[in-house]
Amino acid sequence: MMTPWLAQRAVDRKDAPALSVGDRTYTYAELAAEVQRRAAGLAAMGIERGATVGLRAQNSLDWVLGAHAVFWRGATLVPLHPRATDAELDFQLSQLDFDLLLVDPNDAAPDTTVRTVPLDELRGPEDTVCRAARVAMDDVMTVLFTSGTTGKPKAVPLTVQNHLSSASASALRLGLCENDNWLCCLPLCHTGGLAIVLRSAIYGTSFELLDGFSTDDVLAVLAERPVTLASFVPTMVYRLLEACEGAVESKLRAVLVGGGPIEARLLGEARRRGIPALPTYGMTEASSQLATLSPHADGHLDTAGTALEGVELRIEREDGTLCDADEAGAIWARGPMIMDGYLNRPDENTARFRDGWFRTGDIGRIDRNGFLRIEHRLTDLIVTGGENVDPGEVEAVLRAASGVRDVAVVGLDDPEWGEVVAAAVVPSEPVDEPAAFFEELGEHCKSELAGFKTPQRWVICSELPQTHSGKIHREQTRQLLRDAPVE
Question: For the AMP-dependent synthetase/ligase domain, which residue ranges apply (predicted)?
């Protein structure tokens, strides 16, 4: 048994910076004092070890304090996205027995039978002392929902051990410095953002919290604050490079880039301009990272790096046999940071777990030196006229075409072909003649790809549909293309 990590750091790192929000920096002692005030409020409501507390709010200081207060009490935190629809929220609330729901005081109270309390009402008197709970390594610390790119979100229970193993493996890959300061502009309700909060408390290092991503805010923080680490999704990298003509001013030593495909040439451009980008592969079910390119690796920007310490990766054919080096197949993973199984999904757990191995749902290949290349999600594979089409391959070709800023490729049901390849394109400049633009893109694809891989349906959009965590929302992209007039 142990006390929560923040309680430990309030003793051994009490005067070290823990969190900066705007112009205010909290030491670990100050952060723990604020958390105890809120933990006392939770205690008065009967929240203790084993309770389940939902948290639905925007990124904010109150979010961090509320989350740590839940951990301080030894309860399970269930982060919920503040932009979730009523239907999405109803579904998520139906998956667990909630004891309490903490909400943003600026938002309308959700229509639910769960006891609901605004975050700002947790704050008790100053100098409140609330004894930290004792927790076990196998206690469920968080339940996170997958982003739902291809269906209903799944509830992922993660233990204290899962989060600790993830943070330890990440530190071994990236290195750990006493003055590390992580920029957090990802949603705290998803694993990329939450991992920064937890890692910082485990390491005794600090992080800078933003209420979201904007190029101006991020560039300003990187220039003005001692930020050494950051986590971005590919779209953020695209936007930062677009917004900054020259080099990005910062003290960064490493930037994790994951959550979707990104071309090696763009990662190279980011590095040349002051963003030391490291491609990474991870998922909610693994508490974050599974593979990451080493900061010391020479090249290999077209990969996701190698497996982290304690992680085993294998590539399997459909018949369950192991693939050869550089042969594409299903990615399976094993390690102490991976969950034991989804909540309320017995059939899926049976299909995706075998002898301690977890089928990630992605297709990839591992070369002879252990570098992992992600091909696509298994469910994203397009089968047209009996031919398999990797959407990532088509997207890479289209991104290299003139006039294309971003693109998403999906399959649309078709009575003749089974599926047809379709593309949603974000142009870099306004397009006056869409039909001519699509014809040019089609000819570009045919010059690089087999004819059956060339998109047959197209749509122009100002931004690609995204999940709350910033990934491409495949189902919404399909609907966008279904609704588009045929060009």
Answer: 8-343
pTM: 0.85
pLDDT of residue 81: 86
Domains of the chain: 381-483 (3.30.300.30)
The three-state (H, E, C) secondary structure of the chain, written as one string? CECCHHHHHHHHCCCCEEEEECCEEEEHHHHHHHHHHHHHHHHHCCCCCCCEEEEECCCCHHHHHHHHHHHHCCCEEEEECCCCCHHHHHHHHHCCCCCEEEECCCCCCCCCCCCEEEHHHCCCCCCCCCCCCCECCCCEEEEEECCCCCCCCCEEEEEHHHHHHHHHHHHHHHCCCCCCEEEECCCCCCHHHHHHHHHHHHHCCEEEECCCCCHHHHHHHHHHCCCCEEEECHHHHHHHHHHCCCCCCCCCCEEEECCCCCCHHHHHHHHHCCCCEEEEEEEHHHCEEEEECCCCCCCCCCCCCEECCCCEEEEECCCCCECCCCCCEEEEEECCCCCCCCCCCHHHHHHHEECCEEEEEEEEEECCCCCEEEEEEHHHCEEECCEEECHHHHHHHHHCCCCEEEEEEEEEEECCCEEEEEEEEEECCCCCCHHHHHHHHHHHHHHHCCHHHCCCEEEECCCCCECCCCCECHHHHHHHHHHCCCC
181-184 vs 229-232, strand pairing mode: parallel
Buried b (16+ CB within 10 A) or exposed e, 157-181: bbbbbbbbbbbbbbbebbeeeeebb
pLDDT at 146: 85
**Given this model, what pLDDT does residue 93 score?**
94
Which tens digit of pLDDT belongs to each residue from 138-154?
A: 999 999 998 655 457 89
Around 345, how many Cα atoms within 13 Å sit in the side-chain half-sphere?
17
Tokens describing residue 130:
């609330």
CA 381 to chain centre: 21
Backbone angles phi, psi at 402, to 5 degrees: -65, 135
Crossing angle (nearest 10°) for helices 61-72 and 191-203: 60
- Residue 306 near residue 291, CB atoms below 8 Å: yes
**Cα 271 to Cα 193: distance, rounded to the nearest angstrom:** 22
* CA gap 307, 296 in Å, rounded: 15
Q: How confident is the model at residue 375 (pLDDT cuts 50, 70, 90)?
A: confident
